[in-house]
User: Fold this.
Amino acid sequence: MRRVYQWRYHIVIGVLALGVLGLAWRMIGLMVWDSAFLRGQGDARTVRNVNIPAYRGMITDRNGHPLAISTPVDAVWMNPQEFDIKNPIIGKLARILGLPVKDIQARFHKNTDRAFLYLKRGLSPTIGQEIKKLGLPGIYIQREYRRFYPEGEVTAHILGFTNVDDRGQEGMELAYDNWLGGMPGSKRVVKDRLGQVVAEIKTLREPRAGNHLTLSIDRRIQYLAYSELKEAVVRHQAASGSAIVLDLKTGEILALVNQPSFNPNNRAGASRDSYRNRAVTDLFEPGSTIKTFSMLSALISGKFKPTSTVDTGNGLMMVEGNPVSDPKTKGVIDMTTILKRSSNVGMTKVILAIPPDSLWNTLNAVGFGQLTGSHFPGEAQGVLVKQTPWRPFALATLSFGYGMSATLLQLAQAYSVLGNLGVKRPISLLKQPEVPVGKQVLDAKSAKNILVMLESILAQDGGTAPLARVPGYRVTGKTSTTRVVGPQGYDKTRHNGGFTGLAPAGEPRLLVTVFLHDLRGTADTMYYGGYTAGPVFSRIMEGSLRLLGVPPDSQT
Assistant:
């Protein structure tokens, strides 16, 4: 019996010895031959590459004041596979996030197969720290950047805005997104089983901050223009309005404003319609402001001089069976009076007396029917059709601004050519390091004559825009009053009013154009451009000239 037990004893010892040897062999194999593989497997479960957000470049006005900056914010996200939806602390989480508990629970149950789910983004770092202190497994904080616009709705249409990922969606944010956006970095970190970063191994790529962008806008003039336009839109119950201030010497836009506007810092409740930069994207019939270029065509043709006269009769004429009329009988008047009193009959007779293509050539030369070169997203090209042959009535209506469409920015560019005595310069929303080279597109002498003639429009005795006068400065400009197109054609009860002018008249430095669309004031409210847009022009022009230190050129 003892031999049998001894035999069994040796078998057990042998099996145990073989087990020990096997374990030792396996340990040696793991430490020597499989160490690299196992290390790789471990790293795959704990080592991660994570992005380092890049700082988006700042947008400033021409004087360096910030208009758009990126501020650090926190994003809260959940790993549903690690989160316990029954955790009682979920109520505190919901209160801090400002979300209903039911919303968090619903999103959890819909995404149980995912490992990443945003709960809320764009939170202040203070709130992020509060959530972090809760110590909820499966809830994580991620640092991001959010765009902030110090001037709010005042600069909203120029700047546009970014989305939750800090990428440009509208305006200059979109146009220069690649320039502003920068390049995110990357780093290698070690995470624990809960996904928390416990150590940083190394930086793989440093983040590259975006470039700063300096606009041509002067925020002082921008605010002035915005406040005056907003007040006028409310006073005249206009559907919308736009205004532009342009530096004639450089082609730089110093202010560009629209109503209605929106707050880019809090777009909740803002309509898509309020996002439109109407001065650049919306088309309208410019009306009597085109008479300036009609008269310019007449002077360039050589058939008329500023002292030439036209008999407007009783203020009514028929062109191809269609009536062209003036509000009052004018009789025999000279070229300056045609502009001063905005005579449709006088302008029609002048245009029909010169070569048919003359007016179209002038309008095309100053930029109508073309992009201005502002590079603003969504800029409209406008409509300027060239007929072959020209019908007399089409020429007649074109001479006083109907049968074509333009943006307010195109109108500003066209008048800037006059202010520069026939030299056309590019329009820019960026600050220019030097005065850009222009191109002579119109006869300088004729342009000078037109500027002198347009001063009469602001005269107290019969001018259409005496309220556009600017104390201490001579002003030259033109009014516009057009009917709104409705379902049944032109509506006699609805009007647009505008005024475009330059100052100082002797040597123009600034251009201001103002348009109020669909004026719906009371029955006794004057809807003519000189009485609606004219005073707005006056206040914007006066404030802008004084802010820039332009010396007065008049004692009145």
User: Anything to note?
Assistant: The chain is about 35% helix and 25% strand.
